[in-house]
Every structure is written in C-alpha cells, then in structure tokens.
C-alpha cells in the first residue's frame, strides 16, 4: 500500500469519527490531533519501558498500546499531509532517500 492509498482509506474513517463527536476538522484540528496522538505515543512508550506507571496493564497490553499509538501517529501525519496537499512519498524521497548510498 502506498501513502496516497492509505490517505484515501483513512480519510473517511477520520471524517466519520469527527462527525460522531461533533468536531470540525479544520487546519488546526489536523495538527492538534497529531499532537494529541504523539502525546499518547509518548505515554505508551514510557509505560512500556518502565518509565511511567503501568496502570495495571500487562507487558503484552503495553506493547499493543505502543504499537497502536505508532499507527495513530502515522495515520495522523498522513491525514495532515493530505489536508495540505503534501506528497509525502515525494518529500521522503527528496529529504531522506537522497542520502541512501
């Protein structure tokens, strides 16, 4: 799956979620939602690595939480890029892959 396909698949899911809770997905929402997800990823990482309370979660649950939050962050980066017409694949090629030897 490429990132454009991913964006097309997750866009209606995000729109449906926002609609169900009565939130307008404006430019600020896309960035703030990403920030929220990065915070949740940070919390999951801290719990997984023993740097925060585990809240009674097993190691397997903490690992699953970490993985899920990584997916959330990726999806919200993709949604933010889609919102602003950014071709992430082209930008990754330009910024990162230019350095592959």
Automatic annotation (TrEMBL):
Residues 31-90 form the NTP pyrophosphohydrolase MazG-like domain. InterPro entries: MazG-like_dom. It holds the Pfam family MazG. This is MazG nucleotide pyrophosphohydrolase domain-containing protein. It comes from Nonomuraea maheshkhaliensis.
